[in-house]
Amino acid sequence: MLDWCPHCYTNGRGRTNVRGHFGYAPKPTRYKPWEDWIMKRPDAKVAGGKLGSLPAVDEQWVKRYPTILAYLCDETYDDGGVREVSALSISIREGDFLLALNDKDLKQSVYTQAHSLTEGLKLMEEALKDGKAQWRPWKAGKRK
């Protein structure tokens, strides 16, 4: 009878993983929570110039800020090409509202600063509608 087993020895050293011997460790099964609730792509077709797949759109926003809402919701260009929707960021610094509309598809942003949120949205809407918005291209560089 052997007192020494080569499989137990190599399992203990971490070189092998032979079932039934000392040092055997079953392979861990990792739980991936995102696999349980994977987001399904919606089947809704979006026509150019119409609002995207927002579940509820405030009618006051549609009346007051149609250009901003178009940047945030339109998933297609006028020619039918697919575009990535923009993002609107709102922050407060030194008592003023800072608004940033980030066009992810063209990699550029437009910024507005105002004393109130509605004033900032009005300024951004007017600049976008008149074509006077000063778009700033994103800097190509390393992100942290």
Describe the structure.
This protein is of the alpha+beta class and 144 residues long. It has four helices and four strands; from the N terminus they run H-H-H-E-E-E-H-E. The protein has helices spanning 6-13, 59-64, 66-73, 117-130, and strands at 87-93, 96-103, 108-114, 136-137. Strands 1-2-3-4 form a four-stranded antiparallel beta sheet. A hairpin with a 2-residue loop joins strand 1 and strand 2. The longest helix has 14 residues, at 117-130.
Radius of gyration: 28 Å
The percentage helix is 25-40%
Structural class by sheet pairing and helices: alpha+beta
- CA-to-CA gap between the ends? 60 Å
Note the run of SSEs as H and E: HHHEEEHE
Low-confidence stretches: 36-51
- The counted number of beta strands is 4
List the quaternary state of the chains. Answer: single chain
- Globally, the shape reads elongated
Percent range for β-strand residues: 15-25%
Major β-sheet strand ordering: 1-2-3-4
The count of helical stretches stands at 4
Mean pLDDT: 79
Largest sheet: 4 strands, antiparallel
Characteristic key phrases:
144 residues; alpha+beta; four-stranded antiparallel beta sheet; 4 strands; elongated
Summarize the structure.
With 144 residues, the chain is α+β, with helices and mostly antiparallel strands.
Strand and helix map with partners:
Layout: H1 6-13, H2 59-64, H3 66-73, E1 87-93, E2 96-103, E3 108-114, H4 117-130, E4 136-137
Antiparallel strand pairs: 1-2, 2-3, 3-4
